[in-house]
Amino acid sequence: MADDYGGVIGAFPYAFRHSESWLFKCYVLVGALATGIVSLFVAFGLVVLIGATAGVPGGSLTLSRSFYVLVGLFVVAPLVAPILFVARRHRRTGSKPRYDLSLALAGFVFMLSVYVGLLASVPAELQTPAEPFTVGPVTVSALVPVVRLLYDLPALYGLVPPVACAAGIYGIHRLLR
């Protein structure tokens, strides 16, 4: 089985090689980069958290450290899931470009939903004013009301978009398999 991917890390090149969808191949590259960046942020953040709380006895701080890692897994798992689903499907039964394309779109929407969720959960003292911005000769002001709406939402609502999109990835996989 020289063509077998042999695990999570090997699923990335395997899915890239076997997919016929260019959008999915793009998602494999972007998803791998995003997974690496998120993993580094979680790892460095955990080191900082442990360093800041090293002198404090266990108890609730140990729970917060574990929760930090769990949140990181809840972000990384949906980033990797479309790639793992496609790699498994190609390995077992072969796949149609529609399946690969749909999961790539769902993966990109999940990435966007993480950003939207982060916008909704920014504390008030860290929010920057939402103002129109200029890109070349064009002034973009259509996103200002959206950003203001997201800033006005309670921070807990920041969980809704990523959770809904993660469930959507699984739903697309189940629907199209």
Quickly list its features.
mainly alpha; two-stranded antiparallel ribbon; 71% helix
What does this structure look like?
The structure is a single chain. The chain has 177 residues and is mostly helical. It has one domain. The protein is 71% helix and 3% strand. It has six helices and two strands; from the N terminus they run H-H-H-H-E-E-H-H. A two-stranded antiparallel ribbon has the order 1-2. A hairpin with a 2-residue loop joins strand 1 and strand 2. The longest helix is centred in the middle third of the chain and has 33 residues. The mean pLDDT is 88.
Fraction in helix: over 70%
Average pLDDT: 88
The general outline is globular
The counted number of beta strands is 2
| Lateral strand order in the biggest sheet | 1-2
Fraction of residues in β-strands: under 5%
Pfam families: DUF8056
Protein name: DUF8056 domain-containing protein
Keywords: Membrane, Transmembrane, Transmembrane helix
Domain DUF8056: 1-177
Structure in a nutshell:
InterPro entries: DUF8056 (IPR058369). The protein is mainly alpha-helical and 177 residues long.
